[in-house]
Amino acid sequence: MKKVFSTFILILLIFSGCDFWVNYTFRVNNSTQETITLKFELYPTENQEEVILLPGEEKVVRVIPGPLNSGVHDCLTEHGIGYFRLLVFDTYVNDEKLEKQLWQSENWTYRRESNYSAEYMMTITDKMIEK
After folding, report:
1. In what order do the strands lie in the sheet with 96-98?
2. Using one digit for the tens of pLDDT, what is the confidence trace for 26-48?
3. Residue 37 phi, psi (nearest 5)
4. Per residue in 47-73, pLDDT tens?
5. Which residue of 51, 58, 100, 105 is most buried, as measured by CB atoms within 10 A?
6. What is the CA radius of gyration of the chain?
7. CB contact at 8 A, 93 and 53
8. Is the alpha carbon torsion for 113, 116, 119, 120 positive or negative?
9. Domain boundaries, the chain
10. Domain 19-124 bears CATH identifier 2.60.40
11. Which residues contact 40 (CB under 8 A, 6 or more apart)?
């Protein structure tokens, strides 16, 4: 019985140290008077390979789960954007491709919601889409 109890405690200790999943929500606000389309490079999530943002519209463009070992971190600065390969997109303004890469980390603001979720927000301005 003592051996079974010791094994049970050992298993509990091993699994209690596992990483848990957190959700990172990426929201984009189109503050311009232009129609903006985000075409994602990798396979779409939730059957979306592109997101169309009408003037003044705000949408969630991705919810990306991430394994972390202690709460929610600002992963775009702490671990690098490479972790979020699903976030890479091309930007089209009125169906014309923009050469700037708006998905880069400096365009997002971070807000921690809880130990299990965080939100990144990007507001696309006229200055960001200037040629």
Report:
1. 50-53, 36-40, 89-93, 96-98
2. 999 999 999 999 998 765 555 55
3. -120, 130
4. 558 899 999 999 999 888 776 544 567
5. 51
6. 19
7. no
8. positive
9. 19-124
10. yes
11. 48, 49, 50, 51, 62, 86, 87, 88, 89
